[in-house]
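Incident log, structure service

09:12 report received: a user says their structure output differs between two submissions of the same chain.
09:20 pulled the input from the user's history:
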Amino acid sequence: MKTAMKNSLVAAGLVWLMALFGLWQWAYAAPFYEGKTIEVIVAFREGGGTDVWIRTMAPFLERHIEGNPKIVVRNIPGGQSIHGVNVFYLQTPTDGLHLLASSGSNYVPALFGQKAVKYDFTKLKPILVNPVGAVIYVSPQLGIKRAVDLPKAKGRLIYAGISATGNDIVSLMGFDLLGLETKDVLGYEGRGPARLAFERGESNIDHQTTPAYSANVVPLVKEGKAIPLMTLGQTNEAGEIVRDPAYPDFPTVPEVYEQLYRKKPSGPLWEAYKAFMVTSYGYQKILWIKPEAPAQATAALFRASDRLIADAVFQKKAEKILEGYPLQRGDRIEKAVRQAFQVSPGTRQFVKEWLERKYNAKIE
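09:34 re-ran on a clean worker, output below:
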C-alpha cells in the first residue's frame, strides 16, 4: 500500500516537473525570427516609391521584430509590375520569411482581371498599410474657384495623364462621374511631367498626390497660378470614402457629385470609382504575408508594427515616405482591405467596356 502511494506521488511529481519544464521552455523559447532572414519582394526597380518605402522601414523593423532578423529586399520588376507579385504568390514558401511590398500599380491589373495576373490580394494578410491622397486643381484661366462650378468653366477642360489603365483611371472616372467633358492627353511619363504640362499651359486641370501637391502645387496656389477644388477622397476603417485628413477643407468627388445633382452617387461608374480609388489610394502601399505562415511569425510582425508606429525616430525619418499619412496595422483594417479587392464581375466588365469606349483601350 505504502509502495503504491509512494509510486503515485513520484509519478505526480514527475508530471508536475514535466509541466513546469514545458512552461519554462515556452516562456524562454527563442523568438521565432531569431537568427533568420526575411526576404521582401518588390515588383519594381530599385529607387521607386515602393522600394524606398520598404527600404526606409527595414532597419527599424529589424530592430522592432523580436529576434532582430535581417531584412533583405528583392526587386523583381517587369511585366507591368505584375511579374514580381506573381513570383511571390506562386513560388515563395509559407514559412513567414517571405513578404511582399505592394503599391497601387500592382492593384489595378488585378482589379481589371488581366490574364497575366495570377495573384489574389484577398487571399493575403496585410501587416502594414500606408494610404495616400490626391488633390484636383485647375488653372485660374477657367474662371472658377469651386468644384461645383466646373460645368461653368470657361473653355474646354484639358487633362494631362500617363495612361487610362493606370492610376489615372481614378481621376478619369471621377471626371466622368461628375459629368465633365475633358480632353485627355495621355502618354506622359509620370505625374511630375504632367504637372509641368499644367504649368506650361498645355493642360488646365490636374491631380497630384498630396505630398506632391504640398511640395509643388501649393507654391503655385500662393502665386495665383492654380486653384485647388477637391480631393479624390480617403478611406476610413470601414472602407468608406471620407475627406482627406491632409486637406480636410476640400470636398471629395462624391461630395461634389451631391452638390451638383442633389443626390448621392450610384450606379456602375460610382461602384467602379469606389473600387479603384479605395485600393489605389486608400490602401496605396501594403506589406503582406501569406496567411498560411506560422502564427508566431504573424503575431511577431504585428507586435513589431505597433512598436514601429510608436517609434518617434522612425516617424521623423519616414516623413517623406509615409507621405503625411499614418501607418496602419493590417489586422485592424483587414476586413475592409479584403472587401476593397473584391470587385464584382459586373463592375470589372463595366470598367473594361468603359475603357474601350472612351479610350480605345482593351484589357486582356
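09:41 both user submissions now match this output. Likely a transient worker issue. Closing.
09:42 reviewer note: Residues 23-27 have pLDDT under 50 and may be disordered. The chain has two domains: 37-131+283-332, 134-280+350-359.
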